UniProtKB/TrEMBL annotation:
Keywords of the record: Ligase
Annotated gene: birA
Protein known as: Bifunctional ligase/repressor BirA
Coiled coil: none
A Gene Ontology cellular-component term: cytoplasm
Span of domain BPL/LPL catalytic: 6-186
Amino acid sequence: MQSYQEIGNKIIWLEEVDSTNNYAKKLIENGEEEGTMVLARKQTRGRGREDRNWISPEGGLYLSLILKPPFPVKELSMMTLLTAVVVLEAIEKLTGFRCQVKWPNDLLLEGRKVCGVLTESKVVGEAIEYVVVGVGVNVNNNMEELSTNLQYPATSLQEKLGYEVEISMVLREIILSFNKNYKLTLREGWSVILKKWKENLYPVGEIHRQNYLSMGNQEGELA
Ligand code: BTN
């Protein structure tokens, strides 16, 4: 198995930052190693996919992981799927609720968005130099603030459970789940992650089916 620096051993805690992904990328430029996690109580310019904002007041979980995966470039998109599975399992372990994955990596609880993943990377030639995996989870967020965040209706763990959730507990489960699933992937390839991801897909008809099939083709030998 490839060696891997477990995440969670080095966590940089920030009161406030523009974006944990931006901060992580600056760290990498200064030589930061794999495994470091950047965590912020709030973000002033949190970023989502497709240039959207990720409104990030206190109450949510905002983190970025620095990874230097040994995979070929064509498997880069699998890191996003892996992260969706990681957070899905973490939330289920903590709350008993099983999320669904809406293509490619939104996590929905009963059709409402509870988590988003933003994966950014640098590729040099045929090699992945780094991947920054950014995760935002709606934990105890104010629901009015969340409604401006997204193109889908949002929910939070607090709204679903009816009580406030310790953000550190969510963080702990994500770290455990990440290390477990990432090590499994390094040992056995992507098939287990792909299976878990497909088993928990949110059914959104033809578009989803097409994307799903193209993922099968892209990762043909793995699926
Ligand atoms: C999306 O659903 O569009 C992805 C949202 C990703 C948000 C997280 S919060 C931590 C990290 N830092 C950012 O600026 N974005 C990601």
